[in-house]
């Protein structure tokens, strides 16, 4: 006879000892009720959802390594004589910030490893945020009720780039000083207030003596605090709105199919943190980045040959390099448009457009419903094409930021590269838009063909008159739902004709706005293919059922055959 040896936690010796303190906290904080609800929160699973986790865990690594670096870094621009172990710079006058960076790299145990992990984590943090936002954009995950969370994400991206640049500038080496000189030019180019802002930020004429301490305070205190607050708000809204999910079996706009946060999701997320941390540690140990000792201390009279910023700032530099020289003189003042328009205006337009896009799209489509199912990129051809055009323009700007390096390494004419990219900045995105839109429309038609004609089986039938035809198998209901679950019916655009005046001849005061909106709606839905109607599906089912005289056993996991006739395995 077996004896039950199970003991409840509250009846165990440890549980009895903790019952008092835990009960005291619960009476005052209500942790039990909140924990019971939130720790069992269900989250869906998909590989693309890990992109946001990569950004989150990269930020955690930044905090951990940043604490270590803070203990040894001296954020001072006071001039000192270097007496460290790096012989080529021994006895050279430099700022205390640069000297302490060399000490961290050569004299502090593990310092160089921490520096490199920190720098790689910063690059991965920004990259993961960008790719995560692209996933959200292309799948329509920013739609109601997640517009505020999207704007928070845009703010996180902007602050992450500023935070990365601030940390990049702290060593006060010749390369980071060149980057600061570039930013000084951007600030100066702002009409009317540029020179005043420069004196306020730098404490006088560039480079001044206080910019490194100010960047240090912003880098370790101000911006991280704001980032933490925004990340917290981002996560809270994620839990409150529930996570979006891909359409599939059992998944609707009203539920979430997945695993609970505790213990499944927390275990997976914890394990993923160690994967990200290990990957960054491996990169920091094996791949050199930002060797400040090779650049030397910053000198305002010198510029690093072939200097390049971190990749996420390459767009702004590339746009400045592409802009033709344009200056005007008004009221005895020089207005440098060739720096202000691409450098300050370009980034301003980019982030403003990103932040307002959910509201712009909702105004165009008139869709005010809540959306919790993700939309396949092919089912929004214009949105997907706009995203592809934006990525193309970004790549052109990024290439332009390294036009001198490209010309040197490949033996090309730098002026030819610059002129090709100047025209390409306007031509290549248009080409990308057209090609991407046509691909999306073609994929929509392919989905419709799959829904109405079924999967190709690779089984060939011969008719009595000698003809050959391939047998098709109907899609299971789950596969059909995955193709149509989040696919919206196209609106009846012709029924919304805008008139200048009503039947009584009274002029419509909103005619221009309504007409413009109607044109934008037609542009947004132009070429999109509507999903099959119920009549189309019934007719397709009858047609597919007619080939059942000689049934073929295909298996439950059959999903059609490839172009070579081999069954697809997903």
UniProtKB/TrEMBL annotation:
GO cellular component, one term: plasma membrane
Any single biological process term in GO: respiratory electron transport chain
Gene Ontology MF terms: metal ion binding; oxidoreductase activity; quinol-cytochrome-c reductase activity
Cited SUPFAM superfamilies: Transmembrane di-heme cytochromes
Matching PROSITE patterns: CYTB_NTER (PS51002)
Domain Cytochrome b/b6 N-terminal region profile: 21-247
Listed EC numbers: 7.1.1.8
UniProt region (Disordered), positions on chain: 531-570
Membrane topology per record: Multi-pass membrane protein
Cofactor: heme
Regions crossing the membrane: 47-73, 117-138, 150-170, 216-240, 269-289, 335-360, 380-402, 414-436
UniProt biased composition (Basic and acidic residues): 531-542
This protein's UniProt keywords: Cell membrane, Electron transport, Heme, Iron, Membrane, Metal-binding, Respiratory chain, Translocase, Transmembrane, Transmembrane helix, Transport
Record-given protein name: Cytochrome bc1 complex cytochrome b subunit
Source taxonomy: Bacteria, Bacillati, Actinomycetota, Actinomycetes, Propionibacteriales
Gene: qcrB
